[in-house]
Specification:
Blueprint: H1 3-19, H2 26-47, H3 80-115, H4 118-132, H5 136-147, H6 151-177, H7 181-188, H8 193-230, H9 241-248, H10 257-284, H11 286-291
Helix pairs in contact: 1-7, 2-3, 2-10, 3-4, 3-6, 3-8, 3-10, 4-6, 5-6, 5-8, 6-8, 8-9, 8-10, 9-10
């Protein structure tokens, strides 16, 4: 059998092994349903909201929940439920862009660090560790101080802060793939590093990317809410769950519901993405099967 035949045989067996997934777990099911609910709320907000979420109407300020105002109104007379719907859109938009930035930079960086010489990979990882010293919230505050507060600044800062997590995880997966027989066969067949990375490494670490993306999304949701709470995130009048929490602080004694609804929205969204990440890890990680 030639080197090319060996490569084709092993490479064709690898996807078949990857297709043998374990049954859907409770974490994956519940997390998927919660994430689907949040995404559904965001999509619904594009076509319908009970009221204009930015309309200020002092005549109906601090209304209790009713048939007209499902979650009541805030101190400015704005409909809280409509703000929750629009806030889900803002949160998901920030999360998608932040995770996308982290994956687009972190995944290639991790693959290069895993496929390159050992000293080069260690050098990249030390620079990676330096970036880890700046949490997403701190980095976003620094960016806001320099470039001004805004949604774009928050997205970029959260994305940059998440790059080290993708790079470190993908480097570990790349090192494992580079020790497999089909990569050895590809090298013997004369395939270059780019071809090996695209055909063998990237497909085999794709499950790691999916899991880390779901976990990173939960981190992005929390970071965006914290930034908006501190005044460095999404500026008014665009609704944001974090800013709704901040605006409710002075009314906790007379209208605690103003903090309860956005707080529950943040908690449920973070829980959903965390459960989804745990479920995806249980489904894709072959090491967990050996431990059972």
């Amino acid at each position: 059998m030639s080197a090319l035949d060996a490569e084709a045989t092993v490479a064709s067996a690898a996807p078949a092994a990857r297709r043998r997934r374990r049954p859907v777990t409770g974490s994956l099911l519940v997390g998927g349903l919660i994430v689907a609910l949040v995404i559904g709320m965001a999509l619904l907000s594009f076509v319908w909201t009970p009221h204009d979420p930015t309309l200020v109407d002092p005549a109906v300020r601090l209304q209790e929940p009713s048939a007209e105002y499902w979650f009541g109104t805030d101190k400015f007379g704005r409909d809280v439920f409509s703000q929750i719907l629009i806030g889900s859109r803002t949160t998901l938009f920030v999360g998608f862009v932040a995770v996308g930035v982290a994956a687009l930079i972190g995944v290639p960086l991790g693959i290069v660090a895993g496929m390159g010489p050992r000293w080069f990979g260690e050098l990249l990882m030390r620079g990676n560790d330096l970036l880890l010293a700046f949490p997403a919230l701190l980095l976003a505050i620094m960016f806001a101080a320099v470039y001004g507060a805004g949604t774009l600044v928050a997205m970029i800062a959260i994305g940059i802060a998440s790059i080290p997590h993708f790079a470190r995880l993908i480097r570990g997966g790349t090192l494992q793939v580079m020790q497999t027989e089909y990569v050895t066969a590809a090298r013997a067949a004369g395939r270059g590093p780019f071809a090996i990375a695209v055909r063998h490494v990237l497909p085999n670490v794709s499950s790691l990317v999916i899991v880390q993306a779901s976990v990173g999304f939960a981190i992005a949701v929390l970071a965006e809410a914290a930034l908006s709470f501190l005044g460095f995130g999404t500026p008014p009048p665009t609704p944001s769950w974090g800013r709704m929490l901040q605006e409710s602080q002075e009314l906790l004694s007379i209208a605690p519901r103003l903090a309860v609804f956005p707080g529950l929205a943040i908690a449920v969204a973070v829980l959903g993405f965390n459960l989804l990440g745990d479920g995806l890890r249980d489904r894709f990680d072959p090491k967990l099967e050996d431990r059972r």
